Amino acid sequence: MSSPLLQFATCADERQARTVLFGANTQGAGFSESARGKSGEPRSLFSADFVREADNESPSLTESLADGASVFDAGNLALHGLPVEAQMARARARFLEVFQRGQRAVALGGDHLLKYAAFSAVSAAFEDCGIVYLDAHPDCALEERLFFGSILHHAWQLPHVRPDRTSLLALRQVNAREREGLRHWKPGIVHALEFCERGLPAVLESLVAQLGPVRRVFVSVDLDGLAPHEVPAVEAPYPGGPTLREILVVLRALAERYELVGMDISEFIPEVDPVKLTALAAARLAKEFALLPPPRNQR
Ligand SMILES: [Mn+2]
């Protein structure tokens, strides 16, 4: 079965594109016990194709009326059936290739393995890249096993991915093991309540302070970071997150200041997205991010 491409992405030549989109259905980081994922079986529909199909059925420009002429859809990486190490090596190499050409990468996952692959490529390509980690959870348990709950513990051991250049955005569900990880690594944190308590300008101020003196930023999105009334079809939904609108405003503001090198969008479960609300939210996020301009000082 051939995969659909995102019709919004009308650039025909990858090398000419400003943003390269690809699907990377990594599987092997495990599933949360708390919500919908008690099975250890790989999910059959952990797929970027569903996002593309939903957007193709209900197409749109970005909100600022931009089209996707600068966006190339490279299809999906061939990861099916590969061992975890090979999946991550292939995803890492794809990110690295896009980074090294000076283009922006947008990867539709996939589970949390995709994040480690992305961070590993970030660390190899850039010495000055901050991480914005949109997630209800901190994923920083101090465990040697690489799984969804320990991704950042491992990422922060990479040479150029640092907790003091990372901001955990919209954090609101933390277990005791992860609290130990937070106390050990001391990353920047923007708690979910800060969006209403302090407002978006203050959230942005915190992000800038937490990212420190970086020129570039990679944005890692676990869709459960967003409010589940808009983005319900995720592995571990948890109420009280920021809206898609708020996150798009944050991203627009980050683009003014930083070179946004890439984004991964992970943990989407098509099986529980009957009206395709989550798919459309993921597509919106990908398209708006793909078209964000370079920072002010590079225009
Ligand atoms: Mn999460």
TrEMBL record:
One of its GO terms (biological process) is putrescine biosynthetic process from arginine, via agmatine. Its cofactor is Mn(2+). The keyword Nucleus does not apply. InterPro entries: Ureohydrolase (IPR006035), Ureohydrolase_dom_sf (IPR023696), Ureohydrolase_Mn_BS (IPR020855). Binds 2 manganese ions per subunit. Keywords: Hydrolase, Manganese, Metal-binding. Mn(2+) binds at H112, D135, H137, D139, D222, D224. GO terms for molecular function: agmatinase activity; metal ion binding. It holds the Pfam family Arginase. PANTHER family: ARGINASE/AGMATINASE, GUANIDINO ACID HYDROLASE, MITOCHONDRIAL. Belongs to the arginase family. Agmatinase subfamily. This is Arginase. It comes from Cystobacter ferrugineus.
